[in-house]
Amino acid sequence: MASDGNESPIRLAAETWESLFRAQVAVMRRLQAGPAFRKVAINEYDVLFTLSRCPSGWLRLNELNDHVLLSQSSLSRLVERLEKRGLVVRMAAPDDGRGVLLKLTEEGSALQKEIGREHVRDISSLVGPALTAAEQRELQRLTEKLRHSVGARPAKELPGKYLAGK
Amino acid sequence: MASDGNESPIRLAAETWESLFRAQVAVMRRLQAGPAFRKVAINEYDVLFTLSRCPSGWLRLNELNDHVLLSQSSLSRLVERLEKRGLVVRMAAPDDGRGVLLKLTEEGSALQKEIGREHVRDISSLVGPALTAAEQRELQRLTEKLRHSVGARPAKELPGKYLAGK
DNA sequence: CGTCGATACATGCAAACGCATGAAAATCGG
DNA sequence: CCGATTTTCATGCGTTTGCATGTATCGACG
User: Fold this and answer.
1) CB neighbours of B89 closer than 8 A, spacing ≥ 6?
2) Which of A24, A26, A159 sits opposite B21 (nearest CB)?
3) Which residues of B touch A17 (CB under 8 A)?
4) Dihedral, CA of residue B7, residue B8, residue B13 and residue B16, to nearest 10
5) Is the CB of B78 under 7 A from strand C?
6) Closest nucleotide to residue B63 (Cα to C1')?
7) % pLDDT > 90, chain A
8) Which long-range contacts (CB under 8 A, 24 or more apart) does A85-91 make?
9) What is the pTM of this model?
10) Which residues of B touch A138 (CB under 8 A)?
11) What sections of the sequence does the record tag as coiled-coil (chains A, B) (predicted)?
């Protein structure tokens, strides 16, 4: 009820985002309600997951911040809590005295794997029946393209002028 | 870097969601940083927007709750704040003594339109260059399909068994 | 080498959030 | 018609979040 085929590009982009956003909300609602997120909040799991995907095992706090939808200070405290729970360990960055490196502990890794398995099952039971394999691949392609175009780095500061003039 | 073409359907679904989620995070980051959300938080705007799209003008609080990624209590207080700021008005539902109806005030409607315009510009400057019109329409189609399959209603209670067995 | 701005992370504090619960109205079952 | 259950929204309370700021290090430049 909106893709007439010939509408303004601006409207089209807005409706595309609206649709993507609503779909994300709908899926996220179900996932959050699931049993997988009793032990860790979704943001916390996101951190554990990102760490688990990191090849070297160690990840800088600021890099982590690019992946997660959290302010720097909130991430700092979230990590603090994860450390207090024994799920991650902090370490001063060897090459940068300001930096902090993070790594999953054995326990953190185990918990991530455990929740990850549940999480993946939940997801596939939501996404699997909704779209064909080809559609899923296409959706993946399009969202990846969008994400890479938007870029991970939000250009930190520049309040109000990072958008092409006018 | 992951769509080999022949991977397990479970993995495919998980990666599709992962990709969708990351794209949403990346776009949302940029939008939140933009100048459009100085006056109202993103969740607050979402409420104003949803109300503006409501044909009758009036919307029940619980229906609103389906669209927004917030707990019932948080929405209740968010609306309370919006009312205190004169952006919406509450009214007891005529046919249901428990219910509360919401409507934008003149001021709320004006603010929604103002921010909406900015918001739409921001979005189109992010999404527009990223995907062709055809790709945007396809992305819209796929996300709508996903959303409708997932369904708006999370089936409130049933902790742990709303997922088809196994 | 000393100064100055930028970057990385931590922290004080007020605002916002979710969970558990409460009150009031609706609905269901005898 | 009445009591039990459910639904809808509000509220107390502890936790989490973001903004502003503080502290320390890095990098550039004279």
Assistant:
1) B83, B102, B103, B105
2) A24
3) 27, 123, 126-127
4) -10
5) yes
6) D8
7) 78
8) A87/A48, A87/A111, A88/A47, A88/A48, A88/A51, A91/A58
9) 0.86
10) 138, 142
11) none
How far is residue A67's CA from residue B98's CA, in Å, rounded to a whole number? 42
A130 CA: distance to closest CA in chain B (Å): 5
Residues 83-112 of B with CB under 8 A from A: none
At position A42, the amino acid (one-letter code) is I
Q: For residue B132, what are its two tokens?
A: 């062709």
d(CA B166, CA B163): 8
Rounded to a whole number, what is the distance in angstroms from the first to the last CA of chain B? Answer: 29
Q: Which residues of chain B have pLDDT under 50?
A: 3, 155-166
Q: How far is B117 from chain A (nearest CA, A)?
A: 10
Size of interface A-B (CB pairs under 8 A): 217
Predicted local confidence at residue A165, as pLDDT:
29
Contact B12 A136 (CB under 8 A): yes
Structure tokens given for B33: 């940083």
